# Entry
Amino acid sequence: MNQLEKLENQSVYILREAYREFKSLCMLWSIGKDSTVLLWLARKAFFGHVPFPLVHIDTSFKIPEMIAYRDRLAAEWGLQMIVGQNEAAIAAHETYPDGRTDRIACCKNLKSEALKRTLSGEWPRRRFDHESRQYREDTNHEPYTGVIVGVRADEEGSRSKERYFSPRDRQNEWDVGDQPPELWNQFKTDFAPGTHLRIHPLLDWTELNIWEYIERERIPVTSLYFDQGNGKRYRSLGCYPCTKPVDSDARNVSEIIAELRSGKFANIAERSGREQDKEDGGSLETLRRDGYM
Amino acid sequence: MDNQQEQMNIVIVGHVDHGKSTVIGRMLADTGSLPEGKLEQVRLNCERNAKPFEYAFLLDALKDEQAQGITIDTARCFFKTAKRHYIIIDAPGHIEFLKNMISGAARAEAALLVIDAKEGIRENSRRHGFMLSMLGVKQIVVLVNKMDLVHYSQTVYDQVVAEFAAFLAQIGVEPQAFVPISARDGDNLAFRSANLPWYQGPSVLELMDGFRKEKDQAEQPFRFPVQDIYKFTAGGDDRRIFAGTVETGVIRTGDEVIFMPSGKRSTIRSIEGFNQPVRNEVGPGQATGFTLTTQIYVKPGEILCRGGESLPHQGGTFRANLFWMGKHPLIKEKKYQLKLATSRATVTLQQITKVLNSADLTAETDRNQVERHEVAECILKTAKPIAFDNSRDIEATGRFVIVDNYEIVGGGIITEAFADAGTLAAHELSRREFAWERTAVSQAEREDRYKQQAKFIVIAGGDGQFQKQVARTLEVELFRDGYSVYYLGMANLLSGLGADVKSRADERDEQIRRLGELAHIFTDAGQILITNIPELDEYEIDTLRTLNTPNEILVFDLGGQIFADNQPVQSLGDSVRDVEQAVSQMKAILRDRAILIEYFI
# Structure
């Protein structure tokens, strides 16, 4: 069994385990390559179905093509698509692009806070209606207590320490020092009321594995990852004010793979285009302790 | 093609400060696996802070490393050789982090165990060696590090090797090799070293490439622990798929299969998958799904096996080696939850035969409990039968974890299966029947008065809501017809009599037990007690039947669940969808069987 098959089978096992154990389960979909691979793996695990909702946090600063791509796949694949947003902060312009906050506070407001309140059901959630192809306010306000997330251990230090099944307390806090043991394929799936679980089926994947798998399975990804005609492409997607494209003329998946395997990006960290990671050393760790993905 | 290569997980273990991080850091540097500028940056940092450079600094996920999006970490490091991809799992050396060490080692196919040549063998050198053997990591290379600090002395090295080899022999571990190294200087890691001319063996990297993948699991009997059963009818999909991962063996469409422990049989109709060509065969490691040629009812946790091959043990009493990580000790009489492959069962400690101090391997035999960080040989018993193998035969279905109060507190491997001495329900029955004070009113007198046979009626199969409507309607109709009848919903039981059952582990088992006892009281009083139970299986019917003895149970199956022939089940057939129709069918059966005695004035 080669590396990709082994990674795929392990991820499928974890997804099925999560679905078996959690009544109130959702999967985060950031529209990026990792969470799209995760979504594809869910279709693998459940034989073409995705039996739980997909949650997207829309900061309102996403590149428009990302949103179009999201809604196209939601319709084509019959996904239960849920969208959450920090409407108040956006309306009040309490954001970095509006010049009212720094980058970290902006991430905290538009992502962490929005995510926390969307998962808990405190804030309105909009659900994709497949008949009208419109989003309508979701009548279900139940909290999601199991959340599947596409983080990879190779992304940065704090993610490398994650478990496949990682508990968070009521405040969404993560106790890095006291994580549950994971033996063989037995994970922490029993939990006290009030606990949240983050499930990480992609921990052992690298950026290169992700692209190799996209190629093998022919998974559709947004064209933002490819040379936009100006010698630039996005290596990682986020909000447009804080995510910069990299210099690259890769026009398709196999050219990206060549670039990562032995080309110009073979030894350069993926998130080097993310400005928010550079402020306040360790900011991502700070954000993640507080619920950031 | 790169992704055609295999991947191997290797754990690195050893006592605190014996040099694990330096080994990994140096290995990453020497194989060109570090991101651009990383090494220079750490060197610069060291200069700035006026401290000597150490390769270990590469591994410490410092705050500023993360800010720069560095891809190195302490928990999992990635690198590759011409032969394969490696994930190096760094396991903490400190005793408080033993559970982290075990988590790391449990994922590994091979291990590097580091010993400081100067300091010699320490507590964790032994403990980790023992844990590796318990976890089934059979390929071990021992690195005798910091040879530079002992002037590359062969005598010192030979002493460490002799002493540690003797220890490993005691616990049945045969390391593949010992290598003298200096991780700081890179001696014998990626490259052979001129500092150690007396060592003629391979480098650490060569030894790693020499680790073999697991022995051919395709040759072993087929084991497919059922993880879940899917039917996505709402998505327009009528397939009923048994999902899981093949642990060992190979199976093909058309093969006969046996589910254990229930013993139900069927045949593989198809191997299901998404975005893949049609397959007629699957083997070890594949996460897959099957449809069967017949409708049978089994729950997740059963092991699907292949007809004609050796089957797993079926029962619940076994001897195991286990290590304990719980804050509270492992004690007798307490109920824990056992997770073995995909099955879950309530388990209790029956007997401790030996407790080993994992640091020095001294054994104690007269212990009543197992403390944190201890390893014990003991006998465990599950409340209901499960299927399992001896871990020597098949690892994946021969090892388990124990859960207490939501936490994984122990892990172990099964070393011997025992024949079961009857079920728990049978024990309880004999105890109760011995003590029961009989009423002076006979059953016949009650039948005559109530014009009915006392009976415990369970509505099973079909959808839970439908079950409940049918059960409640049956109660109302029988009552209005003049019979003595009572409906007891499981929800009422859960929030009332069963409200003290706190542990999720034995919730269902305990509720079934209480229901059985309650049914016994009702039927002893000559009543008809009606309830409905979703997802009822044969084992639970047996428990209820046993506990309700000497009175009788009758299960009405509303469809979808196919029970074995020897069960007290009346099937109403798959077509029953209407409450009135179901109730009138049931009443007809009750009259036919003279459970409802019709009388005329």
Q: What stands out?
A: The longest helix of chain A spans residues 3-21.
